[in-house]
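Journal club side-thread
Mid-discussion, someone asked how the predicted structure for our own chain would compare to the paper's figures. Pasting it here so we can look after the session.
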Amino acid sequence: MDLSQLVYTRLESDETLQKMLAKYDGQPAIFNTEFPSDQQEGWEGKTQYPRIEYQFNMQVDMQRASSGMLMLAIYTEKNPMVAEQLEMCVRRSLKDVLMMPSDEAPFCVAWARTDPFMLEGNAILCKDLVFDILEYPDQETTDPDPVMALSKYIKELYPDCIVLGMDRIGEYTNPADTPIFYCRLQNIVLDPTGYLQHTITWFNCQIAVHLLCPDSAMRLKLIAGLNQMLGNAGEVIMLDDSPMTINAMQVNNRADYLREGQLLITGHYGCLKDSYVGKGLRKVTITDH
């Protein structure tokens, strides 16, 4: 399924929305971009409210660290209590759930704001909900790969958790059922003190570790445990069996785990230089004196 189908199916399968929304062709009244006209037979001559319309704006917002926006409108007859209940249901249904579109990066949506208003000349109450779309793309770089090395370390430490890049995931993964780790590369910089060595080039990297989990106590326990284990080990063995030294770590339990990550790790690792082969000697003669 694509991004739109994933959002639709998630909302359409919610039992509360199924009961509260009007029906069109026997399905909950949830529409992408446009409503069917009032005269369409699918309404079966019954009420057209409450109903939901949604659309996407895939313009990247660097300030909000988002890959786009999901804009969702809830329309009800003038009943603030029903509108409030529908909003809470929509937000609960979409909150923190990792969705995996076909041939695209997995993503979550994070609620940003709600703008209520009345339609002019009608007793229709509308609530416009805006969600940020947050993608979690593959972070594999090259060999040796600091991100994959750290992901492998976390998977071995917490085998019951999901680690993106190490585990296969389905179309929906609920972190309330299984916590989800995601390692995101912040930067890689050349170590100015080590790049002149003949055999190894040294690099410093920063990796942010996200833990997607709605349980704040569980988040703190797992992140603090990872921080302590890395501190005790002092290094992570990379996939080529070389070590990445842990130079610094910082836990920020107040960080937005969907956008920033709660653990920032600074690592130091080396890459072997290719052997230099000089020009061979030719036409060598030996003179016997």
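Post-session note: Helices lie at 3-12, 15-20, 80-94, 146-157, 216-233.
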